Write the structure tokens for this entry.
Amino acid sequence: MNEATNTERKLIEEYSIKANNINVTIQIVLDQNKSVPLYLVSITNISETTKIVLEKIREEFISKLDLQEIENSRDASEEDLRQKFTVSITRLIKKYFPESDTQTKDTLINYLLQENLGLGKIDILLKDARLEEIVINNHKEPLWVYHKKYGWLETNIKLLTEARIRHYATIIGRDVNKEITNLNPLMDAHLLDGDRVNATLSPISTKGNTITIRKFSEDPWTITKFIKEGTISISAAAMLWLGIQNELSILIAGGTGSGKTSMLNVISNFFPPNQRIISIEDTRELMLPSNLHWVPMETRLLNPEGKGGISMLDLLVNSLRMRPDRIVVGEIRRKEEAQVLMEAMHTGHSVYATIHANNADETITRLTNPPIEIPKQMLSSLSMILVQNRNRRTGKRRTLQIAELTPAGDAKVIMQHNAMLDKLENISEADVIIKTISLYTGLDKTKILEDLRQKSAILQWMVKNNIENINQIGHIMAQYYMGKLKLR
């Protein structure tokens, strides 16, 4: 297939992925008749003619199969179902493709299994590491995806019926012991592989049944990737590293989709390996270097009987009994959570968390007014605010501001993004940060600035040598903290 050859279409990028031993080509295409780019999926090692024959095989397979049996097989895993139906499908493949070799037969079998079990073509999308989100709005519209590079894209995949969307939601829920029914038409599930799924049933969602899948990144953002993408500058990254090494607490603010959690994951690259880290999230998204002393914890919703719920506050209070050196929190939403975190800072713990706010001043306003309502004088224990922003027009995520907190609890911006130049600029000196570090380390300003230059040099070297893997970076940080890092 080469849909981009049409004069109304322009191919932006093409790459290949593999899903269940099926070769798939992905094309990102600009179409003059569409308001957003297209994400086109093409199975390349099966011809259109073969697909027509396979559709007949599928229909014959379906005609001999009790679909209700699949719906009701709540105790059977997808792997069990695959094994159960592979024999029948293999028999049909031999009947219609008697001359095919073993590899071809395996490909055809996998194609039919994909079409009939699991999540069908959604499984292909789940294999694309470049995607962050997969969205089904109803059966009349194509699926949408959020691409890390291109933002929202319309796909060439459609589901034929609302019943099929509901069936997929049921399959997803079954795997994590959750139900979605007319009485319970909303489902929020966290899958075993880390993906987060939300599903709704009509008429709650008035256009039809929906499924939203937020993919868990197996290859998380790291500081070098952020620098290469232009999300943050080397000098700003060095400042964050300086703060984290010296156990200054940092709050990451930003709007929805601005990259707050990604930045939280990125700054964790700078944690030393000889300290105990407790992370607390509603849904597991963080991935820290494997050499860290890290205990991830996750909240739990109430069961259908209204029991067994574990809140963020429960975990925060409990974490203080686990002798943490660093506490990482997915998001601050409530007064009680903020109070516990501030208390943790006052008792010597380093805290890193996210909050919804669009700039540094708004972050202070959010913290000091209802519903969080923290006394302003308590904010001095928080050393830095980092603000993330996503440009809705271009889709680019950038660090908008880095601010220090004055003794009075006000935000003083020291770095700010210049949107015209797409550059993070220094606009004032980090007086409070330098004074705090000097107080506890004995280093004067000259030596602290020299330390910053050394950190910038190390980050530059890491970028130049394409050191992007989270565990590689964790190893380099360990070498640095042990005084053994030698740049080659």
Residues 223-481 form a domain with the Rossmann fold fold (CATH 3.40.50.300). Confidence is low (pLDDT under 50) at residues 71-75. Residues 10 and 239 are 42 Å apart (CA to CA). DSSP finds 15 helices and 18 strands in the chain.
